[in-house]
């Protein structure tokens, strides 16, 4: 089997939702003593055409909109919007709060909170959406997804500052 061909790499909606629920339960079980960035389930405040609008997170956190398949992250003074799927084989990524990083559950590729590739079978960082600030909101252009290796000028600039 080559690094680019995998059988069974697709994670179904039920598996994703089960894993997400287990992660959320683990976070709740940790109580207020946990020092990791919190994870929140969110929905777009509205969407028109190919845009989704979200309130800018008030603090460092990971926010997942499963309907739009968008991950919003506020970290280190920046807000990013990522595709929910791993760039390796489109498996839904998981946030590991205790490690403060994302990980692909299928092949264990690891990513920093800003989406930067750390290690694993993936060959690039997480895909970022084009974003813009509109008052207290972040507007995500769902038609414009930047891949780090193909969009070398746009990918590093795809964030807003709150």
List the helices and strands and how they pair.
Blueprint (H helix, E strand, L loop, with lengths): L12 H18 L8 E3 L4 E3 L2 E5 L5 E5 L4 E6 L2 E6 L10 E3 L4 E3 L6 E2 L5 E3 L8 E7 L2 E10 L16
- Count every beta strand, where a strand is a DSSP E run of 2 or more residues: 12
CATH architectural type? 3-layer Sandwich
Order of helices and strands: HEEEEEEEEEEEE
Return the CATH topology: Rieske Iron-sulfur Protein
Radius of gyration: 15 Å
How many discrete domains? 1
pLDDT < 50 stretches? 1-5
State mean pLDDT (0 to 100 scale): 84
Strand order of the largest sheet: 1-4-5-6
Subunit arrangement of the protein: single chain
Query: The biggest beta sheet, please?
Result: 4 strands, mixed
Class inferred from helices and paired strands: mainly beta
Residue share in helix = 10-25%
CATH top level is: Mainly Beta
Strand content: 25-35%
In CATH, what is the homologous superfamily? Rieske [2Fe-2S] iron-sulphur domain
- Give the number of helices: 1
From the spread of the alpha carbons, the general shape counts as globular
Query: What gap, in angstroms, lies between the N and C termini?
Result: 45 Å
